[in-house]
Amino acid sequence: MEISRFGLLLFTIAILASPALSDLVLSKVDRRIYLTSHIVRISSTLKVENVGPETVSVVLLAFPELQAKNMAYLMATPHEGKGKVKNSVVALPVEVANPKDMPPALTFYSVSLPKGLAEGDSFTLDVLAVFTHALQPIPEQITQADIQLVVYQESAYYLSPYAVKVQSLSVKLPDSRIESYTKLENTKIHGSEIKYGPYENLPAFSYSPIVVHFESNQPFAVARELVREIEISHWGNVQVTEHYKLIHGGAQSKGEFSRLDFQARPNVRGASAFRYLVANLPPRAHSVYYRDAIGNISTSHLWADSKKTELLIEPRYPMFGGWRTAFTIGYGLPLQDFLYESEGKRFLNITFSSPMVELVIDTLIVKVVLPEGSSDLSVAAPFPVKQWQEAKISHLDIDGRPVVVLGKTNAVPEHNQYFQVYYKFNKLSMFREPLMLISGFFFVFIACIVYMHADISISKSSASYLAKQQWEEVQAAIQQVQNIISRCLTTHDKLEASLRDLSRTGDVQACKAARKAADGLLKELSKELKPLLTSLQSSPSAAQVLPKVEELVAKERELQEKVMVKHSTVVDGYEKKSVARDIENRVALQQQKLVALRQEVDDLLEFIDEI
């Protein structure tokens, strides 16, 4: 069992460890373990006394390796005592230490004292250690109706490389319901608090394992990943966007989930689930939104006053053990509250971690997006963080905006401290984007004016323009040729009409007059046709259509000749008083040729018209 292995490990440490590391002793140790949430906090008040002749300026803190892996935050401060007015506390420097001849299963940290302790001097300090994933759900799986029970294991004695004169321990639980706990000498229980001690005159590395099995239905909210993007706009706004990937880190839910039972008795049929989260946003936060991949989530409430802005958000479904969700919250902040200037540089002063209450963050990434043109970037953080730089391309950007990226694992609310990002920025760069917009609109208007007033037709000296001009002239000439041929055909039709009148009235003189008028008109049309043919024959652009035009003219002349022959034959017959049937027989063959020629002329006209 894991608990037994843990106790055996520390028991071995107590046997093998050296009795004392230096002449320091802990004259009084008062420890308080807070198990009221899934984040374990151990607050210890240590009174250190130097009983040796040498001056000591460093105090060592020891933690078991298994416990050190889950440590998220460690801070040491001078103890101010009860009843004193607390001023701004300055933390003492804490570093990882590697003392010689110490058990490898222990992790040591050194605390530097404000001044060295001479023989007989003492100093009291407060140590706060914060641990994540230190509560083990037992049972590991529960149903919707079950309560959540967890186990915490610790030592009733303060594990230290120094001897301890007097010590006591207080374990504060979220509820008075306790399944079991280790009972030792001087153990008392008062409601939801278990007290061990006082214990006196304990040697270095003393250890006495205790296990507490208790009910804890507090929200085990764990963000597997949180990406915070803080974008600065020198036009008056700081935009904060936070992307959460959340999981319930408690006992895994098994069995079916009944929404009806949960809504009817949420404190009984869903005691281990959490239904909402609270975020303490900075004062004057505005434009707050809460959404996920589906869209906006309306189950949120916002309260604001002059000191804070509180946002209460509810996921789309209650969060049971092992259930996951992802969402985004965003809000704007006034620039003047967070951006300052110092020694020729601007710096952003804003909190590092999530504003969510009691949230554990396995991986936290903070991106600070600076305005384009920022240079000489630097970061000042109150604790160690990974740091690198990126670039972000946004609207109206040319080179992209510099992005300072900070990364940290195992983050807790104690990490939500102010950090600073310093950079240089030329004030004239603020006008880059407005000038780009103004210039863009200006050039668009200029282009429109030029387009409306400029002659964008093809140049009259270019080959393409000349070719187009010649082809238009050819088309005009062909159109005139077609009109002349059509007038010739109309004249032919009038001669045919005069022959029909002759057969009806016998008026030879009227028929001869029609012939004379037709001869005159056809001669004029022939004169008009000659220059057009000459123009087409001299134009290279007419090479494709010229053969058809010449063929059309030839066919029309042949048709004209045969019409005249027919007309003369019919008139001669009527002058000689020939029988009408004999006259028809004489021109029958000519009539057939006339019909065929007329059809050919019509076909050629249609073909040329299509070209």
Q: Could you explain how this protein is built, in words?
A:
The chain is α+β, with helices and mostly antiparallel strands and 611 residues long. Helices cover 30% and strands 36% of the residues. The chain contains 8 helices and 30 strands. The strands form 7 sheets. The chain has a 7-stranded mixed sheet with strand order 4-7-2-1-11-14-13. A 7-stranded mixed sheet has the order 20-23-17-16-26-29-28, with no helix packed on it. It has a 4-stranded antiparallel sheet with strand order 8-10-15-12, covered by helices on one side. α5 packs antiparallel against α6 (508-538), α6 runs antiparallel to α7 and α7 (546-575) packs antiparallel against α8 (580-610). The longest helix has 43 residues, at 463-505. It is rod-shaped. The protein starts with a helix and ends with a helix.
Gist?
This protein is 30% helix and 36% strand. By secondary structure, the chain is α+β, with helices and mostly antiparallel strands.
Topology (elements, then pairings):
Layout: H1 2-16, E1 24-34, E2 40-50, E3 56-64, H2 65-69, E4 71-78, E5 94-97, E6 106-117, E7 122-131, E8 136-137, E9 141-142, E10 149-155, E11 163-172, E12 178-181, E13 187-190, E14 193-202, E15 209-215, E16 221-233, E17 237-248, E18 252-253, H3 259-264, E19 277-281, E20 286-291, E21 300-304, E22 309-313, E23 324-334, E24 339-342, E25 345-351, E26 360-369, E27 375-380, E28 386-392, E29 401-411, E30 418-424, H4 432-453, H5 463-505, H6 508-538, H7 546-575, H8 580-610
Parallel strand pairs: 1-11, 9-18, 16-26
Antiparallel strand pairs: 1-2, 2-7, 3-6, 4-7, 5-6, 8-10, 10-15, 11-14, 12-15, 13-14, 16-17, 17-23, 19-22, 20-23, 21-22, 24-25, 25-30, 26-29, 27-30, 28-29
Helix pairs in contact: 5-6, 5-7, 5-8, 6-7, 7-8
